[in-house]
Amino acid sequence: MASQLKSRIREWRKSKNLTQTELAEKVEITRQSLSAIENEKTIPSLKVSLKLSKIFMTEVNELFTLK
Q1: Whole-model pTM above 0.85?
Q2: Each residue of 21-47: pLDDT tens digit?
Q3: Which of 3, 15, 52, 62 is the most buried (most CB within 10 A)?
Q4: End-to-end alpha-carbon separation of the chain, Å?
């Protein structure tokens, strides 16, 4: 059974007062892709995860944890 990822991206995005569109543009993905990550419908690539951690100036494991 595969482990599932718990995303905290929505919390971090809201704490920085960013819309999904604004954050998606910074990460260079679509708003729909960001929504899928926030809603735990897809697992982001390593590249996207690293970009998000850089934007939020935190470690990847603060943005995502295993359920």
Answers
A1: yes
A2: 999 999 999 999 999 999 999 999 999
A3: 52
A4: 12
Residues 20, 22, 24, 26, CA torsion sign: negative
User: How far is C-alpha 11 from the chain's CA centre?
Assistant: 10
Helical ranges in the chain per DSSP H:
9-15, 20-27, 31-38, 46-55, 60-63
How far is residue 35's CA from residue 24's CA, in Å, rounded to a whole number? 9
Closest among 12, 6, 13 to 31, alpha carbons compared: 13
- In angstroms, the CA 30 to CA 33 distance is 5
Let me know: does 58 contact 27? Beta carbons within 8 Å. no
